Amino acid sequence: MASRGFKFLQSIRFGLCCHIFMITAYLFVNKLLNTKDKYDWNSFFISRFFRLAPAYYFSFFLILCVIFIIDKQLYVGPIKFILSLGHWMAFTTFNNPFINNNGYTKIINAGVLWSLRYEWLFYFCRPFISIPIPKEIPPVRIIIISIVFLVIFFKYRFVDFNHIYSFLGGAIAPFLIKYTKNNFDTKLISTLVVLCFLAIPFFHSSDNIVSKIILIIAFNFIALGNTIFGVLKKSYLIFLGEICYSTYLLHGILLFITFHLMIGTKTAANFTELQYWLCIFAITPFVVFISFLSFIYFENPGMNLSKKIIKKLRK
């Protein structure tokens, strides 16, 4: 597999994760700035769980299927197996052990779950971030639960503060939107955004501070209304945006099945760059289709269920 192609995909992956964190922070801060009523913390955590869990558990089921296609039997005791399942059911927030001692466990889905841990970290930091705002002060029970979560998280997990910068970068946008009235959907700004994205592959990782700043600039211009020459208004991009969470969770699994179970790693290792990209292009429609099904049958019902639960709790 050619290194240039790998570097390009790696750059896209890092940039995507940064923008996911920025979107999370943007939505959070925007809610804080514009909420007129007292914030409903129960609704927040319920909606977040049902937003992330359904598609995640579907992807986890597929991971289990792949593991047992490879292993064909249980290689660990039932208690160890159940404990490993428990960690994965909890989004691998505190630990991500091998399932059935299968060394492929953590790479079947391309190792994407690390970003969900940071999502949950941010969610449980949210009560403390909102304390300075009187109408947003959370109940004592929410603060206690958040403290317990954070203590356990920092005990078992190393926190890369480079990712925190992404959250901070996304948090800037709501303030700019609130206090800036300029038109940012211009050809000049669109050109700058395109140049920002074209620059990302020149960096090995988005942890590079210059790369991070470039991504933050691009995100904030888009948040301020730039549509990149109108491209972001296209219906197909809106569609891909709706299914992107499922795509994020499932693309690695489909790649693993293709290259490991169908083609074979030895054969794939000898692919030319052209063969590799042709294979990727051939897989792409299946990734989009499976992601669409996941959105329709897992993500969307999960969001609707959370609304029903919240509505009942408010009665």
UniProtKB/TrEMBL annotation:
<feature type="transmembrane region" description="Helical">
    <location>
        <begin position="187"/>
        <end position="203"/>
    </location>
</feature>
<feature type="domain" description="Acyltransferase 3">
    <location>
        <begin position="21"/>
        <end position="293"/>
    </location>
</feature>
<feature type="transmembrane region" description="Helical">
    <location>
        <begin position="49"/>
        <end position="70"/>
    </location>
</feature>
<dbReference type="InterPro" id="IPR050879">
    <property type="entry name" value="Acyltransferase_3"/>
</dbReference>
<keyword id="KW-0472">Membrane</keyword>
<feature type="transmembrane region" description="Helical">
    <location>
        <begin position="140"/>
        <end position="158"/>
    </location>
</feature>
<keyword id="KW-0808">Transferase</keyword>
<protein>
    <submittedName>
        <fullName>Acyltransferase</fullName>
    </submittedName>
</protein>
<dbReference type="Pfam" id="PF01757">
    <property type="entry name" value="Acyl_transf_3"/>
</dbReference>
<feature type="transmembrane region" description="Helical">
    <location>
        <begin position="243"/>
        <end position="263"/>
    </location>
</feature>
<keyword id="KW-1133">Transmembrane helix</keyword>
<keyword id="KW-0012">Acyltransferase</keyword>
<feature type="transmembrane region" description="Helical">
    <location>
        <begin position="275"/>
        <end position="298"/>
    </location>
</feature>
<keyword id="KW-0812">Transmembrane</keyword>
<dbReference type="InterPro" id="IPR002656">
    <property type="entry name" value="Acyl_transf_3_dom"/>
</dbReference>
<dbReference type="GO" id="GO:0000271">
    <property type="term" value="P:polysaccharide biosynthetic process"/>
</dbReference>
<feature type="transmembrane region" description="Helical">
    <location>
        <begin position="12"/>
        <end position="29"/>
    </location>
</feature>
<feature type="transmembrane region" description="Helical">
    <location>
        <begin position="209"/>
        <end position="231"/>
    </location>
</feature>
<dbReference type="GO" id="GO:0016747">
    <property type="term" value="F:acyltransferase activity, transferring groups other than amino-acyl groups"/>
</dbReference>
<dbReference type="GO" id="GO:0016020">
    <property type="term" value="C:membrane"/>
</dbReference>
